[in-house]
Amino acid sequence: MRKELIKIMAKKNEYNYFDQFVKLEDYSCKCAEILHETLSNFKTETLGDKLKEIHKIEHSADLAKHDMMNRLASEFITPIEREDIMSLSQKIDDITDAVEDVLIKIHMFNISVIRPEVLEFTGLIVKCCESLNLALKELYNFKKSDTLNDKVIEVNHLEENGDVLYYDSVHELFTQSKDPVELLVWTEIFNRLEKCCDACESAANDIESIVMKNS
User: Fold this and answer.
1) pLDDT at residue 24 tops 60
2) Within 10 A of 87 (CB to CB), how many other CB atoms are there?
3) Which backbone phi and psi does 41 adopt, to 5 degrees?
4) b/e map of 95-104 (b: 16 or more CB within 10 Å)?
5) Where are the strands (E) in 30-135, listed by range?
6) Structural domain of residue 91, as residue ranges?
7) Cα–Cα distance, 199 to 122 (Å, whole number)
8) Predicted TM-score (pTM) above 0.90
9) Which region, left, alpha or beta, applies to residue 115 given φ > 0 means left and ψ of -120 to 50 means alpha?
10) For residue 35, what is the domain's CATH number?
């Protein structure tokens, strides 16, 4: 019965939860792109402006999520379980927040030079967000999709690469420096970078759970 509701709701309602998931992840992708571009062409004098730019996107993502929750509260029937809609939308929002938080920490700690490992991380985060976005675009059609499972696996694989990069980066940091402030600052930044990949994997796990429940 619920499987048929997905088709019915799409026809009866202009508001489509599956489309909204993708739109929420679009915000994450945009934030990831800004983060990577900002740190690849790092200029301390423009960092404040970039922080405002990324915060504006994060705020728009919050508004879109609140709109989804308001809509959900008034719906009698939903295409998938309410708890799944709430969970997945929150997991996607967590990604956007995590990406913004990286730039906040770099600005807060008054970083003047970006370590090369950071750019590897931000490039990886962009890929994670893009793969998750593609997975979300296939979620509506999960029974017939030939790529959804591959994209979920890809996000998981990228997150594992992030774990390795995190370990190597922190190890290299402690090998090169004995300065307690430098160690504290960069360990925190690497932690925040890893959380971005973790957040993507968490959302991918929700997608996998939704597919299993509705198969």
Assistant:
1) yes
2) 17
3) -120, 60
4) bbbbbbbbbe
5) none
6) 2-213
7) 14
8) yes
9) beta
10) 1.20.58.220
